């Protein structure tokens, strides 16, 4: 699985902890990383993902339908799942404020054996770390 | 004098601008069935 993940674009380093069942991925400084591709690569290597958390820095934008998105690259954004913390980000929509958040992009659905890794990932904000 | 100040400003700016870039900083996956 480690080799599978290290081959993905934008991945600088993969650290696997067998005891904790944790995989830490460090993205390249100047590369674009695709969390959906990492999920797929992990499943393809025969391992099931329970959850995928990220620490990301980006801007809050509103899409054409008025939904909040967290933009981490000019061409990469994740729809923000509404919760208490996401409400606090609404005033920053379409502003120049750069926000660092810890969030969850994937959680294994209960009872489902094979999750749909092709579905768009939604970002559930778990912590707002910094506003600049 | 003004040119020196401008050059210093540009130098400081070039140091801090890359750190303000938006990006995914870290990813952690919890996995099952790993041997």
What does this structure look like?
The complex is a heterodimer of chains A (132) and B (35). Chain A has 132 residues and is mainly beta. Chain A folds into two domains: 1-49, no CATH class; 53-132, OB fold (Dihydrolipoamide Acetyltransferase, E2P) (Beta Barrel), CATH 2.40.50. Chain A is built from three helices and seven strands. Chain A has helices spanning 2-6, 35-44, 84-87, and strands spanning 11-17, 22-27, 48-62, 68-73, 76-81, 99-107, 122-131. In chain A, 23% of the residues are buried. The model of chain A has no long low-confidence stretch (mean pLDDT 88). Chain B has 35 residues and is α+β, with helices and mostly antiparallel strands. Chain B has one helix and one strand. The N and C termini of chain B lie far apart (65 Å). The chains are: A mainly beta (132), B alpha+beta (35). At the A-B interface, β2, α2, β3 and β4 of A face β1 of B.
- Overall 3D form of chain A: globular
How is the largest sheet of chain A built, in terms of strand order? 3-4-5-7-6
Low-confidence stretches of chain A: none
- Number of helical regions of chain A: 3
Class by SSE composition of chain A: mainly beta
CATH A-level architecture of the largest domain in chain A:
Beta Barrel
- The tally of structural domains of chain A comes to 2
Task: Spell the H/E element sequence of chain B.
Answer: HE
Low-confidence stretches of chain B: none
Shape of chain B: rod-shaped
Overall mean pLDDT of chain A stands at: 88
- The total of beta strands of chain A comes to 7
- What CATH calls the topology of the largest domain in chain A is OB fold (Dihydrolipoamide Acetyltransferase, E2P)
Indicate the proportion of strand residues of chain A.
35-45%
Structural class of chain B: alpha+beta
What is the average per-residue confidence, as pLDDT of chain B, rounded to a whole number?
72
**What level of helicity do the residues of chain B show?**
40-55%
Quaternary status of these chains? Answer: heterodimer
CA-atom Rg of chain A in angstroms: 15 Å
Strand content of chain B: 25-35%
